[in-house]
User: Fold this.
Amino acid sequence: MSADDETTTDDDTGVPGPHADRLARKEASNEGRGSAASDADRETVRFRIYRYNPDDEDRASPRYDDFHIPFERGMTVLDGLIYARDEFDPSLTFRHSCRQAICGSDALFINGRQRLACKTQVTDLSRPIQVEPLPHLDVKKDLVVEMEHFYEQMHAVEPYFNPDDEPVTATTERRQSPANHEHIKMSTRCIWCASCHSSCNIAAGDDDYLGPAAINMAYRFAMDEREGDRREDERYEIIKSEQGVWRCQTQFSCTEVCPKEIPLTEHIQELKRESVKRNLKFW
Assistant:
């Protein structure tokens, strides 16, 4: 038997294994895709994609590459990027994971606005579709940006509970009223995509500014009635610091681009009011 005739099998049973099945399905899909793409009547969408590779001398200067992607109904920008990578250029680099607008890993600058590639429908965009990495973040390669500083800012607000007292037993719940849950519900939707941080002109020019995402995370805990009084005081010291809420200039850009529609600017203003109240003393 030649190498071309070999089939992957499970154990020694001779029965084709799941790996062979997956390869067969992929080959069939590629064959169908290739024949469809060769159809001159099929509509294509032009993607203009930012390219940059500091490790390749020939590609170290930023540029844009054009890809003509076969259009399919319900196609997202992420679908187009995956097609461009799989069919035209395997070196095209970008992040993606869940494809359900939950992980936040595929936030990109699409047609001049921060968006989730997996959530953005091609039919909602003007052509050509220009795809770039998030602004104000260092580009590592193509559409991949450095997220370490953003994560550091998120952790700087200490996004976890630290109650004043221990529960009575290991299974004792810390109950939250429905009204309080409703009050902070929107702030809990953050998926750490950095779209808001990328849109903020203050964060762009000041690495020390916590930024809208981190302040929203602080809001989520500061406004939770289960937070301990001592811990709440400590958190507000972070919130009202020089690089906290008072650096916000209320531009609303963060609110406009948030893929989860979190009222970020409103949360920042509420924290400003609470910070002022805490400094008021009547005696």
Observations:
- The chain is about 35% helix and 10% strand.
- The chain has a mean pLDDT of 88.
- Strands lie at 44-51, 63-70, 107-110, 113-116, 129-132, 139-141, 144-145.
